[in-house]
Amino acid sequence: MQLNQSHRFIVAPMMDWTDRHCRVFHRMMTRHARLYTEMLTTGAVIRGDRRRLLGFDASEHPVALQLGGSDPRDLAIAAKIGEAFGYDEINLNVGCPSDRVKDGRFGACLMAEPALVAAGVDAMKRAVGIPVTVKCRIGIDDQDPELALDMLARGVVAAGADALIVHARKAWLNGLSPKENRDVPPLDYDRVYRLKAAWPRVPIIINGGIANLGEAKRHLLDVDGVMLGRAAYQEPWRLLAVDPELFGVAAPYATMKDVFAAMMPYIEDQLAQGTRLHAMTRHFVGAFHGVPGARAFRRHLAENGVRPGAGANVLRDAIALVEDRAAVPIAA
Ligand SMILES: Cc1cc2nc3c(=O)[nH]c(=O)nc-3n(C[C@H](O)[C@H](O)[C@H](O)COP(=O)(O)O)c2cc1C
Q: How far is the CA of 169 from the centre of ligand 1 (A)?
């Protein structure tokens, strides 16, 4: 069982959100959190433009590649490709409820096929030397979460999974949109705590509805790690408190403006390579949430950041419109 400290706090995989620019930005605020890619299907990894899909910045470590798929052979091939690209972990998605995913027989519908998931984990473990983890739900549709989560855990642990990340609610595959499936099925943190109690030696990470680092710290009394999705993305300033509060070391930078100053060389380098400013600044929208001038910051980026040829000065001008934000204590 391999688990390093960085699993104490993870920023969740989020399609269209946690791309490489977002991850570099998040890494500027916490050196110790573990970062995850968006989900990539095994088909895309095996047959797609690998450099574009899998490329990432060296600063992002530790960073995990999340795969969507169910064919053990394809999972093993894709995991090997991910390992060769330098990823620190391969994670299998057993939680995504979208129709596109359902048709491909992967994501949350795999909660009903624990043997197939275990075979996939087994194949990946044989193929790579880096940790292989699984992100799942507590169940789907009319499954009994006591049985469904137990069955899944038993299979993947026997196959050698290095950690289990559990989104603490069911996915309802008929009738709810993916977005509704992140809010409507009720959260059941106790089910995840019971999983940890039943499998004390298996690293268990809890996910779903964790709003701030205060809540994260309370979960850490019962499980090994927390994964935050929307709270981390929509208000990234919270990440400045992660290293001091959860890892006992100083934050990389004292304030958000220091973070942006440190990020400028990356931004200018990316612009020089043809990346559009907006592809990066779209992740900054919540950076100054609640600080005087935040609206002007957002508006300046929205109005000027999307223009063709927009340069780093647009970001500098936006930052000049807002007050600075320091790392804040956890209860915020
Ligand atoms: C925009 C968006 C995209 C997501 N994409 C993925 C994904 O690619 N893979 C995955 O396992 N979960 C995905 N999720 C689910 C999150 O990883 C997480 O499980 C969920 O948002 C619950 O955590 P939270 O309440 O902290 O946001 C996505 C969530 C959002 C909001």
A: 12
Query: What is the 3-class SS of the chain, one letter each residue?
Result: CCCCHHHHEEECCCCCCCCHHHHHHHHHHCCCCEEEEEEEEHHHHHHCCHHHHHCCCHHHCCEEEEEECCCHHHHHHHHHHHHHHCCCEEEEEECCCCHHHHHCCCHHHHHHCHHHHHHHHHHHHHHCCCCEEEEEECCECCCCHHHHHHHHHHHHHHCCCCEEEEECCCECCCCCCCCHHHCCCCCCHHHHHHHHHHCCCCCEEEECCCCCHHHHHHHCCCCCEEEECHHHHHCHHHHHHHHHHHHCCCCCCCEHHHHHHHHHHHHHHHHHCCCCHHHHHHHHCCCCCCCCCHHHHHHHHHHHCCCCCCCHHHHHHHHHCCCCCECCCCCC
How much distance in Å is there from the Cα of 201 to the middle of ligand 1? 26
Residue 263 Cα, ligand 1 centroid: separation in angstroms?
A: 25
Q: What is the pTM of this model?
A: 0.96
Give the pLDDT score at 106.
83
Averages of pLDDT over runs of 10 residues in the chain (332 residues) are 75 98 98 97 96 97 97 98 98 87 78 96 98 98 97 98 98 90 96 98 97 97 98 97 96 96 98 97 96 97 94 98 79 42
Query: Which residue's CA lies nearest to atom 29 of ligand 1?
Result: 14
95 lines ligand 1 (CB under 6 A): yes
Catalytic residue flag (residue 22): no
User: What is the atom index within ligand 1 of the atom nearest the CA of 209?
Assistant: 25
